[in-house]
Amino acid sequence: MKIAVSGKGGVGKTTVAATLSRLLARDNFKVLAVDVDSNPNLGIALGLSPEKANDIVPICENHELIHERVGGEGGVYKLNPKADDIASKFGVSTKDNVNLLVVGTVRVAGTGCMCPAGALIKALLRKLILEKDEIVVLDLEAGLEHLGRGIVKNVDILLVVLEPNVKSIITAKRITELAKPLGVKKIAGIVNKILDGEEKEKIQSFEKEIGIPILVTLNYDPLVFEADSKGIPLLDYSPSSKVVKAIKELKNELVSYSRLSR
Ligand SMILES: Nc1ncnc2c1ncn2[C@@H]1O[C@H](COP(=O)(O)OP(=O)(O)OP(=O)(O)O)[C@@H](O)[C@H]1O
Ligand SMILES: [Mg+2]
What we know:
Blueprint: E1 2-7, H1 13-26, E2 30-36, H2 42-45, H3 50-55, H4 63-70, H5 86-90, E3 92-93, E4 99-102, H6 116-127, E5 134-140, H7 145-148, E6 157-162, H8 166-179, E7 186-194, H9 200-210, E8 214-219, H10 222-230, H11 234-237, H12 242-260
Parallel strand pairs: 1-5, 1-6, 2-4, 2-5, 6-7, 7-8
Antiparallel strand pairs: 3-4
Helix pairs in contact: 1-12, 4-6
Bound molecules: adenosine-5'-triphosphate and magnesium ion.
Magnesium ion binds next to helix 1.
């Protein structure tokens, strides 16, 4: 199963991706967490020290590797480069044995990314063919760029994280509208930072407006923010919080979805 976590900036993608990855790993799945953000911080959310996280060179900045695999002389690139060994060669082990791959992101104008780094990243995601106990969790950069570059084309589930506010709902709607024609098998929402009393009816109206089911809601919890400001993973800082419990529910839903669709 390949799961991508998308949404507007700051809605909680990395918090969800990291916690979900570790919970899946604790259920004995082999989890590869992929940071596809130009400002990568999934490593810290997975419990790496800032120094260790900082030492990782994102794949798209590994010019030697890109040159070796994709070429590029005279503007001619291999569009189908070898990429199946990259996760095992460049992955870094984090808490609960989650393997972290920092890919970074490539800035390109338009949709048809032909740059060498883009070609390698796309091949990497396409070639991550999984055994049945393997799961990939992609922590995407905020916004819509990944959909334009087809990065999410090969995922089984696209999770769209949103907050209960107009701007993030509009972003969720745009993500959904761009992802549907790409053939993403399942798109589902997560509403984060819900305040007490803001419940059911609101969620139903989001489902209607965005056109996707909401799988889970996470309440606003100052401890989540506190954990983040201290650089401690939520799962270690506040393991019995409601937010962690809700992400466990999400994990269970995703696992049963993957079993049903197999
Ligand atoms: N349920 C919550 N309650 C309180 N604060 C939260 C909650 N979820 C996330 N946050 C806080 O919101 C901020 C953004 O979270 P996070 O980094 O996970 O979002 P993101 O979508 O990955 O952001 P970016 O777009 O910058 O990558 C962090 O300070 C985090 O601690
Ligand atoms: Mg993030």
